[in-house]
Write a structure and sequence with these properties.
single chain, 556 residues, Serine Threonine Protein Phosphatase 5, Tetratricopeptide repeat, Alpha-Beta Plaits, Rossmann fold, 4 domains, six-stranded mixed beta sheet, globular
Length: 556
């Protein structure tokens, strides 16, 4: 087999999605923490399913480049969780490298794998080795070596799969947490599962590919599917023919006590080529972005701005840029909402939690969170439906953060994502919201609120494990804060008491408990009384009805 064709890509994409769907529960179970919140496999399966469905909608196309672009766009909008967003970036990098080719040679496919890996690394602020990033990179490097010595398409794909499997097995040697928990990286496993499903097509395994109308047909691949078609050069994300961020924005900030690290943090998800240099009284900022106004607003609260220059780097690429990052269609119902200045979009699960967020002024609450991360499309729809001039997004879950940022980049209004990692942080942030303040001022005050509160959750272990030298038995209650297990035990109330005590400092005065759907109100009231007496704290309780976690709690 000499070339990757559109038909082969269509069949392989569907096969990969089917294989990952079938094994998502096993991938979900590869969780360092032995709790019922693993969702890596589910997120990746839903993301890849969105890509496969987008490819099916392009059933009339015989161009590999067009189908690769459809897959990338489908995954972009359907991405769920951090693993899903990273997977969508693999597909974006692949599509960018393929460009408008109708077919691709083995070497071009291997080079597209490298571009896919680079795009995935670029999507992560602090890439960590021993994850799906490593698995994808080492698979791509092997593919290129095989292709460069004349390997066939099947040999390139087989070698890439073998390298990915070896890399996956090595992930515990790169990450101590995986080694201690006795698992491989879940995202890497999902990548290998999908690749294995795609590769099976080359071995003639029948795959039923549905048509857009719902009919199915069994497809296999034979050497006759290969074509030899001359194509144009690819248009890459970092190439000369297409750019992701259109506006080169630079300026000087003058003030007192300017924190360069906080500027980098606030701007890191707004573009690339970020440069922040200077000292605490004068800082030079340079960034390529699609939201120069938002960049100026975020930096303007830190001092006075001087020497502002905003240049459109390539006006002639506007059409390509709009195709690459399309504006979302206006969802039905937007015209029924009264116009607002700044909308607050947040995420939560549990009827009580959702009701509380709405009562505190959230414009929209997307139902989801742990075990059911909302997609980029769902978050984008909520932003677009808000009928607002700007929006703040509170993901309330570290695994929703990347999808929220991706939705913010696609929105037609300025969006700032406040990195709330839990429901309790979301509550604290929302309490600081002021409709009269600017987007940047609100974001700043919300981040201050997050820093002033300690949050945690209590759940049950679903298997025996050892995490950070702590022995955990199936059925134990776990007190977790900021990604660390602080307390374990068989008595739920005692675990909550010890957890609250561990979060306290000399200034702590209030603890708030949100009890889940499996906890009776009477227990929560009794527990609050015990905490007040034993820890000398004011304690408030709320009905959260959240799944997975018996208690969500905060100390301030």
């Amino acid at each position: 087999m000499e070339r990757l064709t559109a038909e082969l890509f269509r069949t392989m994409t569907h096969a990969a999605a089917e294989r990952l769907e079938a094994e998502k529960a096993r991938v979900d179970a590869l969780n360092v923490f032995p709790v019922a919140d693993g969702d890596t496999g589910t997120n990746m399966a839903l993301t890849l399913r969105a890509a496969a469905e987008a490819v099916l909608q392009s059933s009339d196309s015989d161009s590999l480049g067009e189908l690769a672009e459809s897959a990338a766009q489908g995954a972009l909008m359907g991405a769920r969780g951090n693993s899903g967003v990273i997977l969508s970036q693999f597909l974006r990098g692949f599509a960018d490298s393929i460009g408008d080719r109708k077919t691709a040679t083995p070497l071009e496919v291997a080079q597209a794998f490298v571009a896919a890996s680079q795009a995935a690394y670029g999507a992560v602020v602090n890439p960590v080795e021993g994850t799906m990033l490593t698995v994808g990179r080492e698979a791509a490097e092997t593919a290129v070596r095989i292709a460069e010595v004349g390997g066939s398409l099947q040999e390139v794909l087989e070698g890439a799969l073998a390298a990915a499997s070896v890399s996956l097995a090595n992930t515990p040697n790169l990450l101590a947490a995986l080694r201690e928990a006795g698992v491989v990286d879940a995202g890497g496993e999902g990548l290998v599962v999908a690749a294995r499903g795609a590769y099976e097509v080359l071995n003639g395994k029948p795959v039923s590919v549905p048509s857009p109308a719902g009919a199915t047909s069994e497809a296999t691949v034979s050497p006759s599917d290969a074509q030899d078609v001359e194509t144009n050069q690819p248009i890459g994300e970092d190439g000369d023919n297409e750019i992701t961020y259109r506006y080169c924005t630079e300026f000087v900030i003058r003030g007192l006590g300017i924190d360069r690290r906080s500027i980098k943090r606030d701007l890191s998800d707004l573009g690339d080529s970020l440069l922040v240099v200077g000292h605490d009284e004068m800082v030079k900022v340079h960034i390529h972005t699609n939201h120069p106004g938002l960049v100026l607003e975020l930096c303007g609260v830190r001092g006075q701005l001087f020497n502002i220059h905003i240049d459109n780097m390539e006006e002639q690429t506007r059409r390509a840029a709009e195709k690459r990052v399309p504006k979302a269609p206006e969802p039905a119902g937007k015209e029924d909402r009264p116009p607002v200045g700044i909308a607050v979009i947040t995420v939560a699960s549990g009827a009580g939690c959702i009701e509380l967020l709405k009562s505190l002024g959230a414009t929209s609450v997307i139902e989801g969170g742990q075990t059911m991360n909302p997609s980029t499309q769902e978050i984008l729809n909520a932003i677009q439906q808000s009928n607002a001039k700007a929006a703040l997004v509170l993901p309330n879950n570290k695994n929703v953060l990347m999808s929220a940022r991706q939705a913010g980049h696609l929105a037609s209004i300025p969006v700032t994502v406040v990195p709330t990692r839990s429901f309790c942080e979301g509550i604290a942030a929302l309490l600081r919201f002021s409709p009269e303040a600017s987007l940047a001022e609100n974001a700043k005050q919300m981040e201050v609120a997050i820093d002033e509160i300690a949050c945690a959750e209590v759940t049950r272990a679903v298997r025996d494990a050892k995490v950070n030298s702590i022995e955990v038995k199936e059925g134990d209650y776990l007190g977790i804060s900021n990604g660390k297990i602080l307390v374990t035990g068989t008595d739920r109330r005692e675990v909550v008491r010890q957890l609250v005590a561990a979060l306290m400092n000399e200034d702590s005065s209030l603890a708030t408990l949100y009890y889940g759907k499996d906890v009776e109100e009477e227990e929560a009231q009794q527990l609050a009384q015990q905490l007040q007496e034993s820890l000398n704290l004011d304690v408030e309780i709320y009905r959260g009805e959240q799944p997975v976690y018996e208690y969500l709690l905060s100390v301030e």
